[in-house]
Amino acid sequence: MVSVSEIRQAQRAEGPANILAIGTATPSNCDKSMIKKRYMHLNEEILKENPNMCAYMAPSLDARQDIVVVEVPKLGKEAAVKAIKEWGQPKSKITHLIFCTTSGVDMPGADYQLTKLLGLRPYVKRYMMYQQGCFAGGT
Known about the structure:
Blueprint: H1 4-11, H2 28-31, H3 44-49, H4 60-87, E1 96-100, H5 110-118, E2 125-129, H6 133-137
Parallel strand pairs: 1-2
Helix pairs in contact: 4-5
């Protein structure tokens, strides 16, 4: 019978961990606004579809979270595709996915949704860091 330490040793990579590429993505409506730094961007379409965003004492957090849960994985895919292209290797060689967001808690999370959008193997090790605020947004 194999011991726990033997299993852990077999799962370890040889050599130090490396980040081989990083991709970023920004919603298209933010790129065109010409504002260098912003914290949230709402356009007329978003406001019409989500009237609670501007209504006094309305549950606007729920409306924002509903948008984020759908849009964050899409932005993640856009960023990941750039990183994979820069890396220059097939997606089948991806072993780990680290996903960090300032908001958008959902289960299963954005990391899981991203693995599906990218067509990654289901056993890719995923690390999800939710609610990291400015720390995640600035790194």
